[in-house]
């Protein structure tokens, strides 16, 4: 740190005190049994942290993405995994910006108390992947309802959420001027939907990340659950996606700092050839490089937060922050596992668990290639490649 006081120190200390009650063994046990850390989530909810972005008039603390990102960073820095709860933060952005006053009054106070969880967002589909505007799930208006048919994949936390945002096509692709038109966002009451047109099949995966395949078979959604204008959902969801990318950048920074602290402590203690391995520059440099890249990524993360909180769309900054932070955490993860030697592979050191967890962010919520192509086309004005 530069010596200038961190303006968020009080917030960080509060989070650190809460996270300290859930040590590495706690997260390791849930990882090994592929179970959901309910007690941890409960503690975060009762302390109000998962309602950080809800305005005070609706029972939240009215904080910005900046503070929300610090909550996520500190969870990962403590050895935990904010992937169990980050959905609530970025979905909040979609509801806050796209929802009507009536919708906010209906859902936000209950989300603030923890009575309802808004942890899920269903965008990705198995046959279209990153080509989001080609998604095939349809929502057809019939009377005062929309009838949804289609399939989604990799939809996280559905089994631990009462509410889910859904992106579906309301006007066929061949009838819209712009391919991003004709998509709409809906709020799905998950408990009501399961067994009434929604089937949820869990996907076992490399990390302890509760994620699922969803099948929609004539699921009826009341028209009052349409978020924002029909056909304009892509823009609404993009606001949420920029918040998501920024929050995940913060999580990667938390991971990177966890790896750097862990490996720095280890290499000072581990004696090989009669001296600490940390005396070798071949060991120091990869750790130092990961630190440099983490600090640089952190600046871009705070820039994306600053813009989002000022009501400006941080498209470029959110994407760049996510890529820089995911690369820094992956670099730190590699240094950490490498210099732990064989012990890096032992579950009790937690390095292999965090290594698996941080690897996800090279692919999700958006892969590095797609970020580079966004920057090339939308920031640098290079020719469109697809
Ligand atoms: C654990 C987990 C949790 C997830 N949670 C959610 C969730 O809650 N909600 C949700 O909607 N989605 C979720 N996802 C989905 C995630 O956002 C996607 O996996 C990710 O966006 C990549 O899409 P894809 O898997 O379809 O890959 P694809 O689009 O098939 O791409 C595969 C690879 O090809 C590369 N590629 C594709 N096109 C190009 C191109 N034009 N140029 C260069 N390279 C290209 C990509 O970089 C990528 O590496 C989750 C995924 C995982 C693994």
Automatic annotation (TrEMBL):
One term of GO molecular function: acyl-CoA dehydrogenase activity
Q: Which cofactor does it need?
A: FAD
Which residues does the UniProt record annotate as the domain Acyl-CoA dehydrogenase/oxidase C-terminal? Answer: 231-364
Matching entries from InterPro entries are given as: Acyl-CoA_DH_CS (IPR006089), Acyl-CoA_Oxase/DH_mid-dom (IPR006091), Acyl-CoA_Oxase/DH_mid-dom_sf (IPR046373), AcylCo_DH-like_C (IPR036250), AcylCo_DH/oxidase_C (IPR009075), AcylCoA_DH/ox_N (IPR013786), AcylCoA_DH/ox_N_sf (IPR037069), AcylCoA_DH/oxidase_NM_dom_sf (IPR009100)
The segment(s) forming the Acyl-CoA oxidase/dehydrogenase middle domain are 120-218
Keyword hit for Flavoprotein = yes
Keywords of the record, alphabetical order, are: FAD, Flavoprotein, Oxidoreductase
| Keyword field contains Lipid metabolism | no
Question: The Acyl-CoA dehydrogenase/oxidase N-terminal domain covers which part of the protein?
Answer: 8-115
Q: Which Pfam families match?
A: Acyl-CoA_dh_1, Acyl-CoA_dh_M, Acyl-CoA_dh_N
Record PANTHER family? ACYL-COA DEHYDROGENASE (PTHR43884), ACYL-COA DEHYDROGENASE FADE28 (PTHR43884:SF20)
Record family assignment: Belongs to the acyl-CoA dehydrogenase family.
State the protein's name.
Acyl-CoA dehydrogenase
């Amino acid at each position: 740190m530069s010596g200038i006081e961190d303006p968020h120190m009080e917030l960080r200390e509060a989070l650190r005190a809460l996270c300290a009650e859930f040590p590495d063994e706690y997260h390791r046990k849930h990882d090994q049994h592929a179970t959901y850390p309910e007690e941890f989530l409960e503690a975060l909810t009762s302390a109000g942290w998962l309602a950080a972005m809800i305005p005070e008039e609706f029972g939240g603390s009215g904080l910005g993405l900046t503070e929300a990102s610090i909550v996520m960073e500190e969870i990962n820095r403590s050895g935990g995994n904010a992937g169990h709860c980050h959905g609530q933060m970025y979905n909040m952005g979609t509801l806050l910006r796209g929802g009507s006053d009536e919708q906010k009054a209906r859902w936000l106070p209950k989300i603030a108390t923890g009575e309802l969880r808004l942890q899920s967002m269903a965008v990705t589909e198995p046959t279209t992947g990153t080509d989001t505007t080609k998604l095939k799930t349809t929502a057809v208006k019939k009377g005062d309802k929309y009838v949804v048919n289609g399939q989604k994949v990799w939809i996280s936390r559905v089994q631990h959420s009462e509410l889910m945002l859904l992106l579906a096509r309301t006007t066929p692709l061949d009838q819209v001027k712009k391919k991003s038109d004709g998509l709409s966002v809906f709020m799905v009451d998950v408990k009501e939907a399961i067994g009434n047109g929604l089937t949820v099949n869990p996907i076992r995966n490399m990390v302890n990340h509760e994620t699922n395949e969803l099948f929609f078979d004539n699921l009826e959604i009341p028209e009052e659950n349409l978020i924002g204008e029909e056909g304009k959902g892509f823009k609404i969801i993009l606001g949420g996606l920029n918040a998501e990318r920024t929050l995940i950048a913060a999580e990667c920074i938390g991971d990177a700092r966890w790896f750097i602290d862990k490996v720095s402590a280890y290499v000072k203690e581990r004696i090989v050839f009669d001296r600490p391995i940390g005396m070798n520059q071949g060991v120091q440099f990869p750790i130092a490089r990961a630190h440099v890249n983490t600090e640089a990524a952190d600046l871009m993360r705070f820039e994306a937060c600053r813009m989002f909180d000022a009501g400006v769309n941080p498209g470029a900054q959110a994407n760049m922050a996510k890529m820089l932070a995911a690369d820094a955490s992956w670099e730190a993860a590699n240094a950490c596992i490498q210099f732990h030697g064989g012990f890096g592979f032992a579950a009790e050191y937690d390095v292999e668990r965090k290594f698996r967890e941080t690897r996800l962010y090279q692919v999700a919520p958006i892969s590095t290639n797609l970020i580079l192509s966004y920057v090339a086309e939308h920031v640098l004005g290079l020719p469109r490649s697809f």
